[in-house]
Amino acid sequence: MKDTIVKIGGSSLSSARNVSNAANIIVEHYLGNISSGLNVVISAFGVEPGGRKEDKVTDRLISVADYTVQGNINGALGEIERVKTIYYTITDALKLERAIVDGNFKSLEELVLSSIRDLEGGASLNRKKMIDAIATFGELTSTPVVAEVVQKKLETRFQAVNYCGLKHHSV
């Protein structure tokens, strides 16, 4: 059997409600095709259709890269804080621990600080490479959030099945 590939785009991850809906789609695809493989591609959190482009995580991360290449530590860290706010708003609404995204933010901050130190030491930074390195943090940070919601939904689904099965056998 062929694997199924599901791509979840940024606007589908623009709010806690949308993340939950995306997780439902993943669960349904998984349960409906349990004998074949399921590959899920998760984008960075986006904005609702018609929302402001500058509010997209990827666009904010590109700004982080630009500030980094310019040596503007305050600008870079300020944009990272705005990205954190987007993720924390969604993880809090989903009742998830912030720790599932904090490690990625720590790594992002370390990359920015290290790059700016290199710049101050006389190194040159390539904007395209910096964008490539930093923009990936959007997907890397969205993936564990969606995975956690999918896991919880699967656990709930299987608990309900087990409960019904146990109840059925005890009657």
Q: Alpha-carbon distance between the termini?
A: 39 Å
Total helical elements:
5
Q: Give the integer mean of the pLDDT values.
A: 90
User: What string gives the helices and strands in order?
Assistant: EHEHHHH
Shape: elongated
Q: Biggest sheet: strands side by side, in what order?
A: 1-2
Q: How many β-strand stretches?
A: 2
Low-confidence stretches: none
Beta-strand share of residues: 5-15%
Oligomeric description of these chains: single chain
What structural category do the secondary elements indicate? mainly alpha
Strand count, sense and barrel status of the largest sheet are: 2 strands, parallel
Helix coverage percent: 55-70%
Global Rg: 19 Å
Characterization of the model:
Helix content is 69%, strand content 6%. The protein is built from 5 helices and 2 strands; from the N terminus they run E-H-E-H-H-H-H. Helix 1 links the parallel strand 1 and strand 2. The protein is elongated.
